[in-house]
Amino acid sequence: MAKVKIYTTQYCPFCSRVKSLFKSKGIEVEEIDVTYDPEMRQKLSDQTGWMTVPMVFIGDQFIGGYDDARSLDEQGKLDPLISG
């Protein structure tokens, strides 16, 4: 099973939604709070091209944010990504 890592901030409603999505599926996630870590946010932005959170990684693959994770789930593609 691939590890799910989510970079979040404390004030982000989409971060809460994506964590709830994975929780509802019984999938454990590693949450990394970058609220007070501008250097990490810049590093992530450089790596992904995104400026916003949440940033969801499954294994080493960046899949996007909440809308992307939800879309993958609705298409039946999220579970296979996690199952590896």
Notes on the structure:
- The structure is a single chain.
- The protein has 84 residues and is of the alpha+beta class.
- It has one domain: Glutaredoxin (3-Layer(aba) Sandwich).
- The chain is 45% helix and 21% strand.
- The chain contains four helices and four strands.
- The protein has a four-stranded mixed beta sheet.
- α1 (13-24) runs parallel beside α3.
- The longest helix is centred in the N-terminal third of the chain and has 12 residues, at 13-24.
- It is globular and about 35 Å long.
- The N and C termini lie close together (6 Å).
Question: What tags apply to this protein structure?
Answer:
84 residues; alpha+beta; Glutaredoxin; 4-stranded mixed beta sheet
Put the structure in a nutshell.
The protein is of the alpha+beta class and about 80 residues long. It is about 45% helix and about 20% strand.
Instruction: Note the total helix count.
Output: 4
The CATH H-level homologous superfamily: Glutaredoxin
- Radius of gyration, rounded? 12 Å
Major beta-sheet overview: 4 strands, mixed
CATH topology: Glutaredoxin
End-to-end distance: 6 Å
Strands side by side in the biggest sheet: 2-1-3-4
Return the CATH architecture: 3-Layer(aba) Sandwich
Tally of distinct domains: 1
